Amino acid sequence: MLKIKNLKADIENKSILNNFNLEIKPGEVHAIMGPNGSGKSTLSNILSGKKGYDVSGEILFENKNLFELETEERAHKGIFLAFQYPLEIPGVNTNIFLKTSLNAIRKARGEKQLDAIEFLKLVKLKAKDLKFDEEKLNRQLNVGFSGGEKKKNEILQMSILNPKLSILDETDSGLDIDALKIVADGVNSLRKKDNSFLIITHYQRLLDYIKPDYVHVLMNGKIIKSGGPELALELENKGYENFN
Amino acid sequence: MEEQLKIDFEKLLENSNFSKKNVELKRKNFDNFIKKGFPNRREENWKFSDLNQIISKNIKNLSFYNDLSKPNKIDQSIFIDGLEHNKLVFVNGKIEKIEFDYEEKNKIEILDDLVLEKFNDVNNSLLFLNNAFVSNYFKLTVKKNYALQKPLIIYNITNKDLVSKNVNLKVDIMLEENSSLKLIEFSNDKSTTNFININYNFDLQKNSILKNYKIDNNSNSNIKYYFNNISQDTNSVSEIFLLSSGSEFIKNEINCNLNGIYASAFVNGVFMLNETKHHEIKTNINHLVENTKSYQLIKSVLDDTSKAVYQGKIFVDSKAQKTDGYQLSKAILLNDNTEFNAKPELEIYADDVKCSHGSSSGSLNEESIFYLMSRGLNYKEAKKLLINGFLLDVVEKITDSEIKNLIKNIMSLKQ
Questions:
Q1: What is the domain partition of chain A in residue ranges?
Q2: Is residue B393 part of a domain?
Q3: What sign does the CA torsion over B81, B83, B84, B85 have?
Q4: A158 CA to chain B: closest CA distance, Å?
Q5: Closest residue in A to B395 (Cα–Cα)
Q6: Which alpha helices (H) appear in A78-140, and where do they start and end?
């Protein structure tokens, strides 16, 4: 599904990612762990098409060169990024935003757009699964939401848009245990044989709830070690500094 | 230009049958205008919008006499649909229709042929110009305890026949005790390069409510000046909303005197400008007695080489304790060549008051655009959603829901 070969990314002549390689197959859950400044967020930004990086190498998503696609085209193809810091968008109603987003993606895929009633039915169901306060959906997008609510809102968007590849950028940071469980349940319920996940995190904690197939350790812009879930535990015990 | 002014003024006197007293008054106003001329940037009030220059740059051979003897056709297609309303229609400065079908006739008084009664020595040359050249003016009185059943829409229409003219209009509105009026002023211009000079005087008596919505939305090359003078007695409320967008130049000046306790004034405005448009809102909110309140919120979205100016002044008299005054302006500059000027002014002589002001401007947040694009919206859609969200909170301040919806439609803000 996703093949990253020799990815190199610089920002203002500073090297962030270098010789980065990763392959994710349909249905797999990969976790990338690394210390601050190792390039985790850069990776998720580049996969979503954020501007401002000098990139080389190759990223193929379902055999399509991602560098040729704009951010919204990547979303249409099924890439979703759950933001580390979801933005507050004043004046934009959450429900209306969700509907606009879903219908933009459905339209690009040549699917029928949902009318207001169909949409509300869907969003109600998904919000209930995530124990997301429905009343919040009538508020301005993320405005006045707590950190946990913002993260839940990301997972709600993910479950409504039903992407093929979901990238979770430190979704666990700032969540209490209860919220963490709800978020993890949300992710687990989306795990299907065709849906893949890339989970970016500092801590092993989230991986207690979302069992990854592979764990990769990212340091100084490249993967220095890959393994199974046990690698996360090893990392947790040793710390990043003593890991090499 | 002085030559033209003199010729046109004599022409006006010749073709009208003003009383001797009236001619004298007009001449006095005329002389005052000749002495002062069009305002320019040397005057503090006009430092961001040099009207003298703007007129000479945009209007060739401006003339001041309008023959109002022939009737004009009204283009009915511009009437607002889906909202029952009373109508007052001006075409090229001439009253062409007065229709108050929804109202009890003894509860309102309409006069459409008023002439100047006294000389008003205000320090405003454009009011002198207006008083000199306006032929008849219009006055609506809403009687005690009466609330108009339906909104009144004043259509200010100009058509193709009007070119390089100065048009002067004067409208007085009197709201007697406990009365209320919803007034929409809707401009529609198909004319080119005119200078339109409009003077509104609102007299709000005890407990009366004025809701005034001014909509200038269709693109045109006219230069406009509005002087809105509002006088408010005890417990009266004025709510003003400005959609300032269509004309090449507009300066909307609002002078509001809060003369009675518990009087409150709300001024909310939106500038949506592109190309070379240059618009200004200038307010003077005068808190003259205790326990009065004012609130101002102005938002701008500027594109191309457009320019917006907001000069908001709150004056608090030494008697006006417990004043609550607030003003805020925010601008989004879509382009490096746009300009937003804000000059907040607080002049406070009382010690127990609550007054605040703020102003900010900046470009659209690229992070927010990236966020929306990552959810499948293209750049244009993301930008539009952010801009609409930015403007929406001003429109949400409109307290009449029917008119709020109308304005949302006009601004394409419907979600």
A1: 2-238
A2: no
A3: negative
A4: 9
A5: A91
A6: 94-108, 116-129
Find out whether B161 and B188 touch, Cβ atoms under 8 Å.
Answer: no
Compute the C-alpha angle B368/B370/B372, nearest 5°: 70
pLDDT in tens, A55-113: 999 999 999 999 999 999 999 999 999 999 999 999 999 999 999 999 999 999 999 99
Closest residue of B to A90, CA-based? B389
Q: Per the domain annotation, does B100 fall within a domain?
A: yes
Pairs across A and B, CB distance < 8 A: 78
Are A16 and A9 a contacting pair, CB within 8 Å? yes
Domain extent for B261: 2-383
Measured in angstroms, the CA of B312 and the nearest CA of chain A are apart by 24
DSSP code, position B151:
-
Q: Is the pLDDT of residue B237 over 70?
A: yes
- Only one residue has tokens 């002067």, namely B168
Asked if residues B360 and B330 have their Cβ atoms less than 8 Å apart, the reply is: yes
- Residue A87 structure tokens: 């933005």
Q: Indicate the pLDDT class of residue B367, thresholds 50, 70 and 90.
A: very high
Write down the pLDDT at residue A244.
63
DSSP character string of B334-384? SSTT-EEEEEEEEEE--SS-EEEEEEEEE---HHHHHHHHTTT--HHHHHH
Residues 6 or more apart whose CB falls under 8 angstroms from that of B77 comprise none
Q: What is the mean pLDDT of residues A134-157?
A: 92
For the four alpha carbons of B112, B116, B121 and B126, in that order, the dihedral sign comes to positive
Order of strands, edge to edge, in the sheet holding A29-33?
A: A79-82, A165-169, A196-201, A29-33, A214-219, A222-227
CB B110 within 8 A of CB B142: no
On the 0-12 / 13-18 / 19+ scale of CB atoms within 10 A, B305 is: middle
Q: Cα(B197)–Cα(B251) distance, rounded to whole angstroms?
A: 10
ipTM of the complex as predicted: 0.96
**Tokens 């509860």 appear where?**
B107
Which phi and psi (to 5°) does residue A158 adopt?
-60, -45
- Give the number of domains in chain B: 1
Of B367, B377, B386, the CB nearest to A100: B377
CB contact under 8 A, A104 and B374: no
In a domain, B254, yes or no: yes
B399 part of a folded domain: no
Domain A2-238: CATH superfamily is P-loop containing nucleotide triphosphate hydrolases (3.40.50.300)
Cα maximum dimension of chain A: 55
Closest by CA to A216, choosing from A12, A38, A50, is: A38
